[in-house]
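QA checklist item 7 of 12: single-chain prediction sanity check.
[x] sequence parsed
[x] length recorded as 417
[x] structure emitted
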Amino acid sequence: MGILSQLSIIHLLWAAMVFCQYEDYDFEDEYDERPDHQHPYYFNPDTQAEVPRFPFPVECARECFCPPAFPLSMYCDHRKLKTIPNIPSHVQQLYLQNNDIEAVPAGPFTNVTFLREINLSHNKIKSHMIDHGVFAKLANLVQLHLQHNELEEFPFLLPSSLERLLLGFNKISRLSGNSLEGLPNITMLDLCSNFLDDSVLKGKPFSNMKNLMQLNLCNNKLQTMPPDLPLSLMYLSLENNSISYIPENYFNRLPKIIALRMSHNNLENIARNTFNLPNLLELNLGHNKLKQVFYIPRSLQHLYIEGNDIEIINVTLMCPSIDPMNTKQLTYIRVDQNKLTIPISTYAFFCFPHIRTIYYGEQNVNVSKSTQLRIRVFRRFLTPEEYHEAEDDHETHDHETEEDHEAEDNYLHPYFQ
C-alpha cells in the first residue's frame, strides 16, 4: 500500500502541474493578435531567393545601416561614400544611391549570393571603372539602378535573371551588338537622357527582348522610330527626340501598347489609322508640328495634342462613325497652344460620350501674342461637390496656366514606374 500511495501522490502532482501549464497558456492571446504586415519589401516576393537562417543582429557594413525590421536590406545611401563597402552574404537589397562612388570592383561582391536589387544611382561611375562581369555572377539579381552616373557604354555581361534595368541620365552613345543578348527576362529598360542616335538602333538591339514591356528612350538624338520593337511592348517613351515621321503601319506589330509618349518631337503629319491600337489608353503628341488630328481608337482615354499648329479639330477624322454598342472611351483632351479660333464641334460629344474635360487654354492665333477661346476649360458630368468647388474656384480657373495641368499630364509617370 505504501508504494501505491506514493505512486498516487506522484500522479496527482503531475496532473496538477500539467493543468497549471495549460491554465497559464491563453489561446486567445495568440489568435486575437493582429498579424504583422510590416514585412520587408521585395521587388518580387513570389520569386524571392531562399536565404538561410541567420542570428540577430545581422552582419552589416560599418558605413551602412541594416534595420532589424528589414534584415535583408543594407542602406548605404547619402553617406558621401567613395567606395563600395563589403557586402554581407545574406543581403538582398543594397542601396548605395547618392554617393561619390566612381568604381564598381568585384571585391565587395565576392561572397554575395542572394542580391536581388542594387541601387547605384546618382554616383560618378564610368563604364571602364566597372569590373568585367561583376554583375554577371549575381544569379538572383532582378533590379539594377545605374541612372544618373557617367556611363559611356551599356554595362556588359549582366545576369540573365535581370528584370528591370535603369540607365537613364548617363552618357551612353553606343550599344555593342551583343550587349543586350542573354537578358531574356528584362521587362523594363530605361535609356532616357543619353546620347543615342539612329545609328545605334540599326542593329535592332531590342528585337529579341521577348518579355520587354516598357522601353524609355526619351531625351536622346533619335530622328526615326526605333526598328523591330518586340511584340510584348506596352509602354513606349520617345519624348524629346527629333522624330519627324511615323510609318503608317509601324504599330501593327505592337498591339499591346497601352501608353505612347512622343511629345517634343518634329512630327508634322500622322497617317489616319496610325494609332488604331486595341489597348491604347494614353497618347501624348504635344509640342510637335501637327496641323490636323487623326483617328482615335475606341480604347483611348487621354489625348494630349497641345503645342501644335492645329487650326480646327476635325471630329469626323477622329470619329468617322458612331457605334452606340461600341462607344469610344475618350475622357480628356488637351488642345491648348494650338491655333484654334472656335471650340470643338458638339458632334464630338456624340462620338465621345465619356468626355469629361477639354482644356483649351491659350491659343497661338497671332504670331505676336496668344489669345484664348471663350471657354478655356470645358468640364462635364461634375458631381455636386465638384460643381460647387468649381464655382468657388472660378477666379482661379481664369488664371490657369500650363503648369496647372501638369498633374493631369502625368496620368502615367514619365518613366511608367
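[x] summary fact logged: The longest helix spans residues 2-24.
[ ] second reviewer sign-off
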